[in-house]
Amino acid sequence: MNGTPILAFERLVKRYRDGTLAVEDVSFEVQPGEFLVLVGRSGAGKSTLLRCVNRLIEPTSGDVKFEGQSILRLRGSALRGLRRDIGMIFQEFNLVRRKRVIDNVLHGRLGHYQGLRGTLGVFPRADVEAAVDTLVRLGLEDQALKRADQLSGGQKQRVGIARAIAQNPKLVLADEPVASLDPASSENVLGFLRKICKEDGITAVVSLHQVEYARIFADRIVAMRGGSLVFDGPPEGLSDDRVKELYFEAEDGDAEPEDGSRPGPQRVDDSLPGQPHEGAPPR
Description:
By secondary structure, the protein is α/β, with parallel strands linked by helices. It has one domain (7-247): P-loop containing nucleotide triphosphate hydrolases (Rossmann fold, 3-Layer(aba) Sandwich). The protein is built from 8 helices and 10 strands. It has helices at 46-53, 76-85, 101-106, 125-137, 153-166, 183-200, 211-217, 240-247, and strands at residues 7-15, 21-30, 35-39, 61-66, 69-70, 86-89, 171-175, 203-208, 220-225, 228-233. Helix 4 (125-137) packs across helix 5 (153-166). The radius of gyration is 19 Å and the shape is globular.
């Protein structure tokens, strides 16, 4: 893909107060309409990188540009406007458990309202109809009036996708969206996410542990290790040898996984590429 990037990282650095260097001099661009997947072991810097985009984390140095504009200079209403244009999908769903599915989806519209309208749950008919349509596209039309805590994990994550899409975003960030799901649900969720992004022309940056899913769904893969970018290319370019380097041949200075453990081949999170499961959604 060619043209002006929708997102650009320019020598981005994030060092935490305890001295941990989470992101080190990372530079790459994301083109409009791309479905880009970030891979790497836990602690490689993927989540930190994503959260610098919508300023949930403040970078230490470097820059992030969205549609050519530095996000680091944005304040107040300009920053709120940026966050309206960027949908976020979380590993732990972040749904309001006691609220209905349709209400959770409509929460994606709150950034577009002023005053008490969204707080009181008063949404325009057009927004409600759009939310229902999105649930239909995600195969959740029969779940719209259920409470979120009555759903399976895969269904909850599809609600998370619907909520992000309700924003009418230009960019979606998905931070380990299938880490807590079984393989069949993971492929289902990633298939729906890719399909909707492609149909609606939404750019997506998705972080994953599972390289096999990246190879199935990504237009392009960016791999990180120890906070640095170590691969940027098409899925077929990420060889098994490169994957082993990423996950199993740790060097001194590599960031530890969040749970303090080392990955091994028996872990689902860090599994090497394999054959897709039966029924995997088409790319």
